[in-house]
Here is the input.
Amino acid sequence: MVGSGTIKTLAALVGAMAIGTAVLIAMETAPARPVVSIPRLTQDQDTGIDFALISNTRVPLMYPKWRNIVIHDVGRDGANATKGCHFVIGRLDNPNDGSIRPTSLWADQQDGDHIYMPGFSYNENSVGICLMSDSSRAAPSGSQMKALVRLVRTLQDSCQIPRDHVYLHADLGEDGCPGHFFPKDDFREELPAR
Ligand SMILES: [Zn+2]
Here is the structure.
């Protein structure tokens, strides 16, 4: 006859082992960084370039003004970053939202207010794009990344911006913007060198 105390002890042991195993499996299989799949936008079929994304301005688009593109997110910079950028992508409460929203700075083709580097004037000639995600906690969603690639490609094509003028804020001195879950290499691969 097995006492109920023994059964409880056994049940507790089995439960603890199951939890331990689950933790081990999770630790073993968890990738160093979450994989974000950016749907491949092939050059010849769907180039991803859509001029309508950037053409709705209140003044004529000043193509030669824009020499660089700088990517941010709201993790390090905070929600106020959106005000200083020219485009905002997605929504914090909905990872499926891949909307691209120009701000009034873009509508009026005005300097940005998103990057500070002593001795440089990036705000005058750099399109600021802010992802509504915190990449220090998790990678941006596939919808956001696809929208980002589409927008950056369109800007590159329209304003003749080479890939090596597409920066993350972190490339220009602001460590952690966007955070380390941002799929930097996959993103670069999607951009034409020009
Ligand atoms: Zn930033």
